[in-house]
Amino acid sequence: MKIGYLRVSTEEQRPDRQIDGLEPLCDKLYIETVSAISKKRPVFESVLAKLESGDSLVVWDLDRAFRSTVDAITHANQLRERNIDFVIVTLGVDTSTADGMLVYTVIAAFAEHERRRLSERTKEGLQAAKKRGQRLGRPPKMTDNQIISAMQKIETKQVNISEVAALYDVHPWTLTRAIKRFELVLPK
């Protein structure tokens, strides 16, 4: 049986490309939504446990299944010991052959290198943005004027925090945090 494993990192990401590529090749598909760096991948672990001798584990891209070169090689060896083929569709690699395993090992090393370089570039970009004074992260839900107005309403006891939060269409906890952050930057 050919078992396809697909992974996306976030709910916003779509597995369509992987589904389109694997559906015609596989008997069953298993989709997981979890970051590659996550320690737990329950769907992946379940798929590995279900595989039997003579089955094939099929993935679209190498990085959809493994986090590091060591992880990739270790799992490929474990699968081979269980007489389970491992196929990476986009690379045309089948680890059941000596040449396929060699190519797989080299590609796994390059994939890990690229992942680490991407992480380094991202951190460098964030540091450069901070140096230029750019605000990182999501934009604030409330403007300074809205926070001041909310603080005045709360101080004069016109309304409670939940009512003010509803007025600005934010969660009460969001309003409370915004006020605390705002109070930290107010001159005393």
Which short descriptors sum up this protein?
five-stranded mixed beta sheet; 2 domains; alpha/beta; Arc Repressor Mutant, subunit A; 188 residues
Could you characterize the architecture of this molecule?
The chain has 188 residues and is an alpha/beta fold. It folds into 2 domains: 2-126, Rossmann fold, CATH 3.40.50.1390; 144-185, Arc Repressor Mutant, subunit A. The protein has helices at residues 16-22, 42-50, 69-81, 98-131, 144-155, 161-167, 172-185; strands at 2-8, 28-33, 56-59, 85-88, 93-94. Strands 2-1-3-4-5 form a 5-stranded mixed β-sheet, sandwiched between helices. The model has no long low-confidence stretch (mean pLDDT 88).
Structural class assignment: alpha/beta
Distance between the termini: 70 Å
Stretches where pLDDT is under 50 for at least 5 consecutive residues are none
Give the helix level as a range of percent. 40-55%
What is the domain total for the residues? 2
Largest sheet: 5 strands, mixed
Main CATH class of the largest domain: Alpha Beta
Global outline: elongated
Q: In the CATH classification, which architecture of the largest domain applies?
A: 3-Layer(aba) Sandwich
Mean pLDDT: 88
Radius of gyration: 25 Å
What name goes with the CATH superfamily of the largest domain? Resolvase, N-terminal catalytic domain
Number of strands: 5
